[in-house]
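Preliminary data (for renewal application), zinc ion complex.
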Amino acid sequence: MNFTGISSLLRSCILCLVFILMTLGCTKTESKRLIVTNGKVYTLSWANPAQDGTPSSDAPYEDGVWSPDAEAVVVEGNRILYVGSEQEALEYKNNMSEVVDARGGMVIPGLVDSHAHPYYFGEDLGKIELTGIKTKTKLLQALKNKAGTDLKAGEWVLGFGYDEGNLSVEKLPNRDELSEVFPHNPVFVIGTHGFSSIANDEALKRAGITKETQAPVGGEIIKDENGHPNGIFLNNAAELIEEVLPAKTAEDFKEIALYGMQVMAESGYTAFHDAGTNSDYVNAYQQLEDEGKSVVRVYAMLRATDSALLNEWYKKGPELQTGEMFTVRSVKAYYDASLGVRGALLLEDYSDKPGHRGISGEDYGFDQEMVKKMMSKGFQLGIHAIGDAGNRDMLDFYEEVFNEYPEAQRNRHRIEHAQVVHPDDFSRFKELDIIASMEPPHMAEDMDWAEDRLGSERIKGAYAWRTFRQHGVPLTFNSDLTGSDHNIFYGLYAAITRKNKNQKPEGGWYPSQKLTPEEALRAYTSWSAYASFQEKEKGSLETGKLADITILSIDVLNTSLTNPDKLWDGEIYTTIVDGKVVYNKFDQ
Ligand SMILES: [Zn+2]
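Predicted structure:
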């Protein structure tokens, strides 16, 4: 090759490079941008507060007042391109940009519910809702009206939610009364808490329930004077009918999962940690992601009792990449039960039930070997532990696993609820790098009876958020919905005031455990990002991070300081996930 040859090659290379640069430039100016204006932007990009809650010196906080540290956010694709002044943000406007008016609201990193079960919202889709119905006549009438006249022969009529307090067993319609209204269709209706359920002749026939049928453990089949099942079932006996209900298809699971995501988006959440995902929902979330239909991000905590699912993921290993719409990286196990039913495992007897210390362990489906195996493979574990013995046993368990697999300690393991903790054990959370994953609403809902269960000493280690903070234990907050109300203003209010929905008691319940507004907000944003290994991708509003943003009607930091009761007036304005507006109050 002669000299001219080389230079022409060089020339074509340069041309080529210029062309590439031009195309890059083009796509940059032409790609879709979203500009959030007119907001009080709190980026949470400053350092964490001290363990007593004092804001760091670089926080936009002075003399008891918070000031927004930006006015506008520019998003390009699914990432944040710019955070700063409104004037400069508007310079990013192009012919493909969309302006989101925050209407003076508070713009924050996307809210995360780090322990939730949103698909429960969707599981009743297509069923007849009977909430508030207190009499037999009204129940039968509502079923008849809502089932309509175009029922296909043999199609199931399903309902839920009648008031079990008023409709006690002797007041419920029996199989004959239900069959009179629905002679040709199977009917199955369950009460608001699932304590009782009713079925007609056709449903009993399909389930093969006869005089001889035995009720499962924890259930009862109510019989008439001749010993025949009368169509009323208690507790677990509902399973006898549930087993023969039409199986849900993959499409059904997707629809249910999608519905749950939409509820979360409307509630301001940009992500949730699904605390106990079974294989049906793993598939549903995965397909929704593949089809580009995910509304909010889902971080799956695989259900530990689904051993087939765990074995499958043991082979695959955890999904370590961050920033996806759906991530499988965690396992959720149960150790004890709840404090309300005295199922939480305590070190000493229940104060209101001498001789009783709760239930635990293998009896409750905790498969130590299986869980350990998943941890050895790099999965995060979240264990449900409520009582002080439950928490201690699980700390012991973590310690034992870390002795065997030291590298497992790096995987940010969690204790879900961490509700009652012995004073000696708070520091062990820190030593073992365990995250306390807790629900402020549980404190608000349990305060009326928790001390009866625990007595005046143990109660000091219950719902002890400040004590955890003082020990340097990472916190993440959540609702455990549908068990509790996931309204973020409720969660923040409970965390900041230690009061319940009735705004009681004055001054707060064990008020020394209150968190500051900043800590509470971080526990639903930046600290939740840490709990799912995503703090480099989200949890603050900074250039390059994922565009997950929530806009609230009120400035919760200052409102909490001046008049926390006003938090109840808060509304969700807008939810932005992965650069897309997934909910906007003003578009409804
Ligand atoms: Zn839960």
